[in-house]
Specification:
Blueprint (H helix, E strand, L loop, with lengths): L1 H18 E2 L18 E7 L5 E7 L19 E2 L7 E5 L3 E3 L2 E3 L2 E10 L2 E7 L10 H4 L3 E8 L8 E8 L4 E7 L1 E6 L2
Antiparallel strand pairs: 1-2, 2-3, 3-5, 4-8, 5-8, 6-7, 8-9, 9-10, 11-12, 12-13
Length: 184
């Protein structure tokens, strides 16, 4: 099972790299050229059906901390699915997320972790800092879907990373967690 997952992860990363557009280095602030603890990153991919997906996020590192204890996501709490500004998810045409319709547009992307179940939230108020004003903006939720965390024994990603495959599978990889959702 472990070998199968490693092969799958390599295949997804290689495929995504072939379709994804490169992003500039975002690891330093231009003002003082010091490393940023949670640099902004993004991934842009064109799906096989022509849909363009763009995700932009702050990429924190685990740095020896424990998820759910002293590191987000905290159990049953809204998380911005990244660091600093809310993670954004944008599509250039109407799509289905896990079989539910999401209109074309840009959204703040939040999650709520409950055990191995994750609620994914696409909120119309995309230009926001973290999840601090989510309760004020929750009426702007365009879509909520639930997915299960993938079983990935031995897997670990020190820095938060999103990968989008040309088949529409979007992977969030953070510490020991791998969460996947389907865009079609």
């Amino acid at each position: 099972m472990k070998k199968l997952f490693i092969v799958l992860a390599i295949a997804v990363s290689a495929t995504a790299a072939a379709y994804a557009q490169p992003t500039p280095s975002l690891s330093t602030h231009p003002k003082d050229a010091k490393p940023i603890a949670s640099p902004r990153d993004s991934v842009v991919a064109t799906l096989q059906n022509g849909t363009i997906i763009t995700m932009t996020y702050g990429s924190p590192g685990v740095w020896g901390r424990t998820m759910g204890k002293d590191l987000d996501p905290m159990e049953d709490s809204v998380w911005r699915a990244g660091a600093n500004e809310a993670t954004t998810f944008a599509v250039d045409r109407d799509v289905m997320i896990e079989g539910q319709k999401l209109p074309a547009g840009r959204y703040a992307f939040f999650t709520i972790k409950h055990g191995n179940e994750w609620t994914l939230i696409f909120n119309k108020t995309w230009n926001t800092w973290g999840a601090y004003s989510y309760k004020q903006n929750m009426a702007q939720d365009a879509l909520k879907v639930k997915v299960q965390q993938m079983d990935a024994p031995g897997y670990y990603n020190e820095r938060l990373k999103y990968v989008i495959g040309p088949d529409g599978n979007v992977y969030m990889m953070w510490g020991p967690a791998v969460v996947m959702f389907k865009v079609s």
